[in-house]
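== Folding the chain ==

***
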Amino acid sequence: MPPRVPLSTVAWVFLRLGATAFGGPAAHVGLMEDEIVRRRGWLTRPDFLDLLAAAHLIPGPTSTELAMHIGRRVAGWMGLVVAGVGFILPAAVLVTALAWAYQAYGNLDVAKEILQGVKPVVIAVIVQAIVSLGRAALASALLVTVAVVSAILAAVGVHELVVLVGAGVFVAVARRRPRGVASIVPLVVGPVPNVSLPSLFWVFFKTGALLFGSGYLLVAYLRADLVERYHWLKEEELLDAIAVGQVTPGPVTTTATFVGYLLGGTAGAVTATVAIFLPAFVYVAVSGPLVPRLRRSPTAAAVLDGVNAASLALMAVAAVHLARGSLTDGPSVVLAVVSLVVLLRWKVNSTWLITAGLAFGVGRWLIG
């Protein structure tokens, strides 16, 4: 099928998403569903879910790879590159600026406090996406059961890749049974070590190539290299880098940009960013053409259905964790509830709600 969406449109949509997609991978999926499926109709919900499942099953940042898959599906191979770069670029630029401020002033508390206003809106976006995608993904009692069990397993700490693969295999096996059976069921930065750009590239390329799951797992991967093995960063500096990735829009993986700037200035920021995202472009380019073929195979389609159900369960668990840390007072709860009602009832563009959340955060900071 020839490309049907102009590259300029793909670039604009994903640049805007990259500049406003606060809240981590689950929120990014919600924003993309709202923009790509509900508002623009570029993909059907089943197609969107299949691309989400494919992104979950390869290493790298899931939401960024979903953007690449969407770009390729709607605008060909160049769409893959344009969507990926568009989604990454705003966050990389913003994180580089924050890394400069961090080195100069050693304090990011004001930015973190202002961005607290966005989190209630983000929770509403995630819930809306779960409701919307759930209609397509949870089409049988079997898939509902898989989603519930997956949520329980994720909540008790089972690795998300194990949950996803297990759900896919279970549904595939269940559907091979007789039909009747299958239907039942603040800091000052210390001295910067001398780090070469090739060494920096290798550490982040390796991380990008091996990172399964969401960007939140970065802290485990990077701590081993940056803190323990090479002693390039202090523990506190790594935690601040992770925090910056979480409170800024776009991929959480732009934590690499922040660390790269601390260790090598602007050249280090560019090197680390390219290194950690490069494997994702390769993985999506290789796996993308396989998704339609998998859907045509009954067994592979069953695996995709299971992974889709588990993916929604993981989004639900992420929303619960985010809500616990964000909805800590009456105004935050009210903002989350109002945002959800507006999304479900009037289908307002989520970008406007994110902007309202930022204004709410600024207002609270000025008052308090």
The first helix runs from residue 7 to 20. The two ends are 55 Å apart (CA to CA).
